[in-house]
Design goal:
about 350 residues
Length: about 350
């Protein structure tokens, strides 16, 4: 049977629906985080803005409380970047990417850290955290006191499962530098790597599908070798994109009509919908990509969507959300966007 070809517009609307950007959801925070496959959190306010754009009646202290109650977890995960995920997703996400993260780091610093016993360094940090949470400065100082170079600290985080302990890394206290042992924070977890990889792939398709093998690898930071059988077990529905590329999907995942209206939405820095793995959806049009990601601004910019695509950037300043559209906006779209901006300004101001 010939697979159905999905247009860029169909893929765009599928992504927006699965990312809760077509209509705000009443899901609880853990369920929303699972639906969108986690939110990046290198800049602490980003997941707060991300959830405000996706959930009804979301307030800033809702996410902080979810972190404090251990229903959500902040940790270094996919692509060795900080993410907030549900407590239930943390163990399988961690197990799925563990081997690849260690292999990447070991290869990258092989010459610089030749002869360093990373397991011994990790044991030092693990023993300290067994006594309770500690600041990054204390843990880095502990390693330095035992003669380890600064680069070892990054590697230790790949051998010791650590979470950021709130209020560290929240809207109220943005520096994410207080660490605790994940096993103390969440309890032990019996998850094997094969099951974890299937869970990760299922979450990806749930939040970003239909998607290709390369899309999954790019998003997760995993080599493609070995991922195809995982996707084939999980992604039982197949499509093609307009270039003939193979796409995998979950059986009952939504595929809205391409004519479905997409309301204006605000995204913060590093929103995963703008990264390369989602490129086929054109949420970030190619003509605007260099405006958002370039060498002088590696952190990217907060953006707003009009009709499902990035149409400009925004900033919160003096109690207002200021819009910087890339091109003239349709008057009706401008009015909708400005109404949404007023809500975001109120959210910023608490």
């Amino acid at each position: 049977m010939t697979e159905r070809v999905l247009s860029t517009r169909e893929l765009n609307r599928a992504l927006l629906a699965r990312q809760l950007l077509l209509e705000r959801s009443a899901l609880p925070i853990p369920g929303a985080l699972e639906q969108v496959a986690g939110l990046q959190a290198q800049y602490a306010p980003s997941p707060y803005v991300g959830l405000w754009s996706r959930l009804r009646d979301f307030r800033r202290d809702d996410l902080t409380r979810a972190l404090e109650d251990r229903r959500a977890v902040q940790a270094t995960l996919l692509r060795v970047t900080i993410h907030i995920v549900s407590a239930a997703d943390y163990p399988p996400f961690t197990e799925a990417v563990r081997a690849a993260r260690r292999e990447w780091w070991t290869r990258a610093v092989r010459r610089e850290l030749e002869g360093i016993d990373i397991e011994a360094a990790a044991a030092l940090v693990r023993d300290r955290l067994a006594q309770g949470p500690a600041r990054q400065a204390e843990l880095a100082g502990l390693l330095a006191a035992h003669g380890y170079p600064k680069a070892v600290w990054i590697g230790v985080g790949l051998w010791v499962d650590m979470v950021r302990v709130p209020p560290s890394g929240t809207w109220e206290r943005r520096r994410a530098d207080l660490y605790g042992l994940a096993s103390d924070w969440l309890g032990p977890w019996p998850v094997d790597e094969a099951a974890a990889l299937e869970h990760l792939a299922r979450r990806y398709l749930q939040g970003f599908g239909p998607a290709s093998l390369g899309d999954l690898g790019s998003w997760a930071g995993l080599p493609l070798t070995g991922l195809r059988p995982v996707l084939e077990r999980v992604g039982t529905r197949r499509f093609r994109d307009e270039r003939g590329g193979e796409l995998f999907d979950l059986p009952d995942a939504p595929l809205p009509d391409p004519g479905t209206p997409a309301p204006p939405r605000f995204l913060s820095t590093w929103d995963a919908n703008l990264l390369v793995h989602a490129r086929r959806t054109q949420v970030l049009p190619e003509r605007h990509r260099e405006r958002i990601f370039h060498v002088r601004a590696p952190h990217s910019f907060p953006t707003f969507l009009v009709d499902g695509a990035v149409a400009g950037t925004w900033r919160h300043e003096r109690g207002e959300v200021r819009l910087e559209p890339f091109e003239p906006l349709d008057p009706a779209a401008r009015r909708e966007l400005e109404a949404e901006a007023e809500g975001l300004a109120a959210f910023h101001d608490g």
